[in-house]
Fold this sequence. Notes:
Blueprint (H helix, E strand, L loop, with lengths): L2 E5 L22 E4 L4 H8 L6 E4 L13 E4 L2 H8 L9 H13 L16 H11 L7 E5 L3 H9 L8 E2 L10 H11 L4 E7 H7 L3 H6 L5 E6 L4 H10 L14 H7 L3 E5 L5 H10 L4 E6 L28
Parallel strand pairs: 3-4, 5-6, 5-7, 7-8, 8-10, 9-10
Antiparallel strand pairs: 1-2, 1-3
The structure holds thiamine diphosphate (TPP) and magnesium ion.
Amino acid sequence: MIVLLVIWLVSIKTFKFKRKKKKSILNSFLFLFIDFALKAKEAAKEKRGGIIHFEISPKNINKVVQATEAIQGDVADNLNRLLPLIETSERKEWFSQIDEWKRKYPWKYSKPLSPDKPLKPQQIIEEMDRQTADYKEKVLLTTGVGQHQMWAAQFFRWRHPRTMITSGGLGTMGYGLPSAIGAKVASPDKIVIDIDGDASFCMTGMELATAAQYRIGVKVMILNNDFQGMVKQWQDLFYDERYSQTEMRNPDFVKLSESMGVKAIRIRTEEELPIKMKEFLEYDGPIVCDAIIERHEHVYPMVPAGKALHEFIVHPDLMD
Length: 320
Ligand SMILES: Cc1ncc(C[n+]2csc(CCOP(=O)(O)OP(=O)(O)O)c2C)c(N)n1
Ligand SMILES: [Mg+2]
């Protein structure tokens, strides 16, 4: 894999950052990314930046992209050598810019229009966040892949490192439950919660039998929209709602869990959310919660195919 490190620097050789001339690619101070170089090439020509290519295999150097500086070897070793050479600065302007973006683009969703309407997935994560606020350092989250993964990342407020276990962009549906089991075995004193999607859970849900057999107290919160929601979102936005292979005919997750000897509950309404969440969090032993959520909710921001990161789509209420 080609890893390109594009850094705003006045002098590449000394790796010194100067604030005055800062005006970098996509307004960022430092970019670590894969196979992208256009802006960095421009910056190199103007002697205000460039491409540092970390590469273990010499044959890949300058193969696709001409590097301003190439560093051969293990990227982890070389980054460790680079770090002490970087001068830190307060970067007030940059952080106030970030604050402004946060104000302009807050995490956003609309609550159900009436209590009989299905819960929004964000409400469930917010309630989990609220009820675990006093012992955040003890909570480990894992996820499947899809919209639920994004909502978990957005609406559970993160304070402690190494407390979210997710396959990230590698996109391994089915990862949530087995990784939760592994995390709980490794850290029995932690509260380990798999925030899963219905389709992701279906991939490895059989592992509940393992949790039951060895009494591994994992908690599984299934955000059940009866859809492969992330793919459906693309079909909504870019394929005129022509749903292909995304609607799920799911098993009854409560019965399925009980059949394997695992306690299971279901959440449907806003009214029962706090009490059922409490029961879910306090139960001692493996437990599944089938949370029935709004099927048509979208997750934002999202980057459409073929677009650059800064061309993301925001929640419709935040559009200019
Ligand atoms: C094993 C695997 N197959 C296919 C995909 C592509 N994919 C990404 S998200 C997704 C749908 C996930 O649905 P669900 O788990 O219900 O999550 P939701 O988006 O509804 O929250 C699919 C099929 C994948 N990431 N992994
Ligand atoms: Mg789903």
